[in-house]
Amino acid sequence: MLELHVCNADGAMLKAYALGEKEEVLIGRDEGCDIQISSRAISREHCVIERTSEGLVLKDLDSSSGTFVDGSRITNIDLKSGMEARVGPAILRFYEASL
To answer: Which domains does the chain have, with CATH numbers?
Structure first.
């Protein structure tokens, strides 16, 4: 199971989330998002993590500032442990959850 660490632009972890068995996890600045990141550089509903039969997928929701992995803007990408994504000023780091 993957765990998500939300970090600031300097890489310091702000919060950790266990992704668990939820079908989708909505990320954005809106209060209704599962993971809320308060920054005007992030869309209200910026991106989503979706569970598929193949695993977890990170999808950009046509955000104005984009979602980036390895410096490239993505529309969707399969998530793997050790992957980093940038959403506005935030860094999303994905790790295999420790037991």
So the answer is: 2-96 (2.60.200.20)
